[in-house]
Write a structure and sequence with these properties.
CATH class of one domain: Alpha Beta
Number of helices: 22
CATH topology of one domain: TIM Barrel
Distance between the termini: 76 Å
Bound molecules: 4-O-methyl-beta-D-glucopyranuronic acid
Radius of gyration: 27 Å
Shape: globular
Largest sheet: 8 strands, parallel, barrel
CATH superfamily of one domain: Glycosidases
Structural class: alpha/beta
């Protein structure tokens, strides 16, 4: 080699080496791979894993082999050999007794794992050490494969495994509020994932990656379109598109469902009515549903929002919600389809005494009237996905009806795209809430997993936060909410903290100096948001329309329902603050089981974090801390805002562990959140102080601006939300030159 060549060679080597270093620490990462990054292990882990996963043995069971190959190749830095039998130590054997003679020969007891579970076991096969991932079905094997890969990604030991797992809830569904025009109601991550225009011919590779991500956490259903539905989804044109998506999701065990308007027989079918008792209407649905199943043989069924926020429904014909559900259930039953019938109903008339009562008042009398293939889908709280609500009183109150839980993964009321609010603690609180329906321990989780009342059809839904953004969810930390929804849907007893830790390890790094502070930050984030937005049981204090930012002064607008305002909920006046739901008020407390109702009815025993949800109390009322209600309120706002400052600090010390792209995005978003939290704090204090006329307690700085300034501040547009809002001038006024 000449001197020149040698110099060039040396230079190239240097560049390559530098590239390698950079690739570990600083390579940009756009977040597309979510928690399925499969980055190489190092050092002892790498040698341990290579020894434990050097050979892949399985009949091709659809997508499980592809995922194992992809994952192992990434983590081990080289592909494992693929063979037909165990020939060495470190084999991974996967399959069902049906698909693999080897798995069959092991005669594992798979009775306990049902049709969706799996076992993962360390065994000796032909004298070699092997890990077996076995299930009764291909989808069980896939879930097992993802579990095994998760162990590797989070650096768990794999030498002596004996895992038996099955999901507690049968149907784990994402509800996409995606419109056919590509927008997403309450979506903060770009436009819809579904590219309706180019379907069915073009299948975006993102559909497959979406399915992989869902399957990795056990999600097995997707409602493709918004509950504020359009009839077009049921036209042959769109059904072919739906069928194409279903075809991509099917190998990953994900069934497709659709939201449809109750009035479709009129709008699409040109019938005179959609009355559930009209035989022509029944015949129309029967024919339409048969058509759907010709296109999509494993179609899951319908999600229905009826007589809610202007949607049509059976009450338009003087029929009950149960009669409406029954109409669809009868037509779906022969095909194995189900109905998820939402309980989110409230009168939009100007006079609603207490919106929190209405779903219960409507549905409780219908207990036992719903068909076996119907689930009544109930939001976690009685109002609407607030930062904190008590559990919905329907849980535990309908023992003869299948009830499912609806959670909101998209952060409509929790800072939307930019704020870090990990929803694990909120979901966990909802699932662990004790209804007392059958005595202590009758948790919401037990109501929905069928263990309390023995239902066989069980389900849980999360309103998706997924869109066309490259990172899927609008921010990296929003991905954790998709993740935790799936993990808790699989097993509601898992801890939100454990799940956060898993997610951080897979999404970022296993470095303890990163994992510990980030998990701590995530775990504190929801309570901080409650503190700076709606502490002590307040609710619905957001700006109207956009639901972003503070709007505690929003009063009922002319012609609008009173409960679309903030003052309706806070009831702040010279005498105090809070919504009286005791017997002297709306008596909504009576909807809870007697033991619990008694506890809630007394301000001294009511949990303080729900105090103003249930009680109207004087500003000088003393809390358990000895502080007055007013002082505590102010301190909560201040504490929440201070928390965000601290979180920003924490993150700024962690840049060494994160690639620059994800580090920067998160740092920028935390700066926005700091500003937003401060705005919430200032505006809320300014508003409530104008009513309480009390001085601020020591340590709480006065808001820098006047209440009028906060009220006048306007954010006219928020992604995928109705335009305008309080403080915003009407958009059609011409400004004089
Ligand atoms: O949370 C509210 C939202 C609406 C939504 C509705 C619902 C889909 O503000 O945008 O509509 O609930 O759950 O139906």
């Amino acid at each position: 080699m000449g001197a020149m060549k040698r110099a060039v060679w040396a230079l190239l080597t240097m560049i390559a080496a530098a590239g390698l270093i950079v690739s570990h620490t600083a390579r940009a990462d756009d977040g597309y791979r979510l928690w399925l990054r499969y980055v190489p292990a190092h050092g002892q882990w790498l040698s341990r894993y290579r020894a434990g996963a050097s050979e892949l043995v399985g009949a091709d069971t659809g997508v499980a082999q592809a995922e194992l190959l992809r994952g192992l190749t990434g983590i081990l830095g080289q592909p494992p050999t693929v063979s037909g039998d165990v020939t060495r130590n470190g084999a991974i054997v996967f399959g069902t007794p049906h698909s693999s003679a080897l798995v069959r020969s092991l005669a594992l007891d798979l009775r306990r794992v049902g049709s969706q579970g799996y076992v993962i076991r360390s065994l000796s096969i032909h004298g070699h050490r092997a890990t077996v991932i076995a299930a009764n079905t291909d989808i069980g094997v896939l879930y097992g494969a993802f579990h095994f890969l998760r162990l590797l990604q989070t650096r768990e030991p794999i030498a002596r495994l004996d895992i038996t797992a099955r999901p507690r809830i049968r149907r784990r569904v994402l509800d996409h509020w995606d419109n056919l025009n590509g927008t997403v109601e309450r979506g903060y991550a770009g436009s819809s994932l579904w590219q309706w225009q180019s379907l069915p011919e073009h299948l975006s590779p993102r559909y497959t990656d979406y399915a992989r991500a869902c399957a990795s956490i056990g999600i097995n259903g997707a409602v493709l379109d918004n509950v504020n539905a359009t009839p077009y989804i049921l036209t042959p044109l769109y059904l072919r598109k739906v069928a194409a998506i279903a075809g991509v999701l099917r190998p990953y065990g994900i069934r497709v469902y659709l939201s449809v308007p109750f009035s479709t027989p009129v709008t699409l079918g040109h019938l005179k009515s959609a009355d559930p008792l009209d035989p022509k209407v029944g015949a129309w649905w029967t024919a339409k549903i048969a058509q759907i199943y010709r296109e999509i043989p494993d179609f899951g069924g319908f999600l229905m929002k009826a007589n809610s926020e202007g949607q049509p429904g059976p009450e338009d014909y003087g029929r009950t919600q149960a009669q409406g559900a029954d109409l669809l259930a009868r037509a779906l039953a022969p095909h194995g389809g189900i109905v998820m019938w939402r309980a989110f109903v409230y009168s939009t008339g100007a006079h609603s005494e207490d919106r929190a009562r209405q779903a219960y008042d409507t549905f409780k009398p219908l207990d036992g009237r719903f068909a076996d293939n119907v689930l009544v889908q109930v939001k976690n709280g009685p109002i609407d996905f607030q930062p904190r609500e008590p559990f919905h009183p329907l849980f535990g109150a309908m023992p003869h009806t299948n009830l499912m839980l609806e959670l909101e993964v998209t952060k409509e009321y929790l800072g939307q795209q930019t704020s870090i609010v990990y929803l694990g603690p909120l979901f966990q609180e909802a699932l662990r809430a004790d209804t007392w329906a059958q005595g202590a321990g009758s948790t919401v989780a037990k109501v929905i997993d069928g263990s309390l009342y023995g239902e066989r059809l069980t389900a849980i839904a999360g309103v998706a936060n997924i869109g066309s953004d490259r990172n899927w969810c609008g921010s990296i930390f929003n991905q954790a909410n998709w993740y935790v929804f799936g993990r808790l849907a699989w097993n509601p007893d898992l801890s939100a903290r454990r799940i956060a830790e898993e997610w951080v390890r897979m999404t970022f790094t296993n470095e303890p100096r990163f994992v510990a502070p980030v998990v701590k930050m995530m775990m504190g984030s929801r309570e901080a948001a409650v503190d700076y937005m709606t502490p002590l049981g307040l609710a619905s204090q957001m700006a109207a329309g956009t639901h972003f930012g503070p709007g505690p002064w929003v009063a009922p607008a002319k012609g609008m329902p009173a409960d679309w305002s903030s003052t309706y909920y806070s009831r702040a006046d010279a005498g105090g603050i809070g919504f009286d739901r005791t017997v002297s008020g709306s008596d909504a407390i009576a909807q809870y089981a007697p033991h619990l109702a008694a506890q809630l009815a007394n301000p001294a025993t009511c949990p303080e974090d729900l105090l103003l949800w249930f009680h109207h109390l004087p500003w000088d009322y003393r809390l358990r801390s000895g502080r007055t209600l007013w002082d505590s309120l102010a301190l909560h706002y201040a504490r929440g805002a201070a928390w965000v400052k601290e979180a920003r600090q924490t993150w700024s010390g962690l840049s060494a562990y994160v690639d620059p792209q994800r580090y920067r995005l998160t740092a920028d978003f935390l700066a926005i959140q700091e500003k937003d939290a401060q705005w919430w704090r200032d505006a809320s204090i300014a508003y409530f102080q104008s009513i309480s006329h009390r001085p601020l307690p020591a340590g709480v700085a006065p808001p820098p601006d006047t209440l009028a300034d906060y009220e006048a501040f306007c954010i006219p547009y928020v992604e995928n939300s109705p335009a305008g809002g309080p403080g915003c001038p009407p958009a059609d006024v011409t400004v004089p030159r």
